[in-house]
TrEMBL record:
Protein name: ABC transporter permease
Predominant place of localization: membrane
Subcellular location per the Swiss-Prot or TrEMBL entry: Cell membrane
Keyword Lipid metabolism: no
InterPro entries the record matches: ABC_transp_permease
GO MF annotations, alphabetized: transmembrane transporter activity
Keywords from the UniProt entry: Cell membrane, Membrane, Transmembrane, Transmembrane helix
A Pfam match: BPD_transp_2
GO CC terms, sorted: plasma membrane
Residues passing through the membrane, by range: 6-26, 33-54, 60-84, 91-111, 141-158, 188-206, 212-232, 239-257, 263-283
Amino acid sequence: MESYALLAAATLNAGTVLALAALGLLVNEKAGIVNLGAEGLMLCAALAAFVTVVHTGSDLLGFLAGMGAAALLAAVFGVLVIWLNTNQYATGLALSLFGAGFSAFAGIKYVQEKLPERPQFAIPGLADIPVLGPALFRQHPVAYLAVALVLFLVWFLYRSRAGLVLRSVGESPESAHALGYPVRRIRLAAVVAGGALCGLAGAYLVTIYTPLWVEGMVAGRGWIALALTTFATWRPARVLLGAYLFGGVTMLQFHLQGTGVEVPSQFLTMLPYLATIVVLALISRNPAWIRINMPASLGKPFYPGS
């Protein structure tokens, strides 16, 4: 029973990284912008957070540094695709490649560095509940922040005026522009906010989930987060559930190895990516369902003068 509690705790921990990044991409896509650079954003944010924690010893400053680095890169991406009308897909891929190369180059001397002793968190009283306590109530505060963020986005997108405007920009930017809304600035704000969330995911990965720095340590999580937005049909609550599902698949490999199940490690390592491909293949069998839920102007440039 204890092993299952540990598996559940590890699933929440792994799912938090995916949830934060996917929610950031969800905000981007609700405004009509596709950002394929999540992998690069998370890598640069992870490096910025790790370097900051190494030199200051403060996890909070590390989170802020990671979010700031990713938000800055996202702003550059936003200016390119929103004002200069570069291709969103090509620019996103370029950002991803830049992030991978830059983080590898700049992080060489930090590969052997170690972070200060990691703090342990527990909610008094609840953390001592058998099974549920270790699984649910001994997580880092950012894990609970991810859940709170989902609730906030559900309210913001579907209950607030600002959320309605954001969705209208993603559905019909021409109509929003005709009503006097600054479509480009709204899209840029969404891109920067989404980038900051990807940065928080990268910072959490390098300071809490796996407290070390190695080249390419994001290991495809940015791409999985991108797939999650489609898997969740652009709904925040479904993003969270999907993140925990993929987090569970990721941690299952370690659980099976720990219980002595003789499965090739290469097969276990590819499980999360195999699950991503299977889910996307199943979803793509019903393109009409995707079109109904997908923002109508997703990936399409907007020209105010047209």
